[in-house]
Every structure is written in C-alpha cells, then in structure tokens.
C-alpha cells in the first residue's frame, strides 16, 4: 500500500497538486516508519528510504531546499544502513543532497 500511495503522491506532485502530494508523502513516511518499528528488516528500511527521498524531491520541487536537504539526509542515512557505503544508491542520494545544498546557495558544501 505504501508503494502505491507513493506513486499517487508523485502523480499529484507532477500535476502541481502540492497539498495533496504533501499529505500523501507524509503519510507514506509515517506509515513506513511504523512498519520499520515493527520489523526493521532491510526491505522495510529501503521502503522508508524511498519515502524519505521522495519527500525530499517534493520539497525541492516546491523550492524549499533546506527541507529537501533534511529529507535527503535522512534518506542517505537510511540508505547507508541498508546498502552500506559503497552501493550506487548512496551516490544517487548523495547527489540529491548536493542538489538541495546548491539550491540554497551552499555551493562549498555541495561540492
């Protein structure tokens, strides 16, 4: 259900229905957190990371680089827990973090 809700939230975001998208992304994060609390296996943690990353992308689309960075950082921490330091997913989320930092003018840290 979380994966489907995440896709619907992304569709809302693409349609510029920001309020509905924001509510959907938050529901996905909250629900994924509850799932992880009950069963912290890598599959559930990966789902949480996907939700965190999507919420960060939504904030970036809204022009809120600071909040995007917060969510991308959470997604990066989660990804490191699931995949370790050397997985390609780490590069993807690190790039998202740098994009958010760039968006707020923090070019030095974005490097």
Question: Could you explain how this protein is built, in words?
Answer:
This protein has helices at 2-14, 18-38, 42-61, 65-83, 88-103, 107-110. The chain is built from six helices and no strands. By secondary structure, the protein is mostly helical. Helix content is 84%, strand content 0%.
Could you tell me the strand content as a percent range? under 5%
Distance between the termini: 37 Å
Mean pLDDT: 96
- Rg value: 14 Å
Q: Name the poorly predicted regions.
A: none
Helix content bin: over 70%
Q: Quickly give the structural class.
A: mainly alpha
Main β-sheet, in a few words?
none
What key phrases describe this protein's structure?
mainly alpha; 111 residues; flat
Short characterization:
By secondary structure, the chain is mostly helical. Helices cover 84% and strands 0% of the residues.
Topology:
Blueprint: H1 2-14, H2 18-38, H3 42-61, H4 65-83, H5 88-103, H6 107-110
Helix pairs in contact: 1-2, 1-3, 2-3, 3-4, 3-5, 4-5
């Amino acid at each position: 259900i979380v994966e489907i809700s995440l896709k619907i939230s992304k569709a809302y975001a693409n349609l510029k229905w920001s309020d509905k998208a924001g509510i959907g992304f938050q529901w996905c994060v909250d629900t994924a957190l509850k799932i992880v609390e009950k069963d912290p296996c890598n599959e559930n943690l990966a789902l949480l990371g996907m939700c965190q990353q999507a919420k960060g992308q939504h904030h970036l689309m809204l022009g809120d680089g600071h909040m995007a960075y917060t969510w991308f950082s959470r997604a990066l921490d989660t990804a490191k827990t699931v995949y370790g330091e050397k997985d390609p997913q780490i590069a993807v989320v690190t790039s998202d973090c740098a994009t958010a930092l760039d968006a707020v003018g923090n070019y030095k840290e974005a490097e």
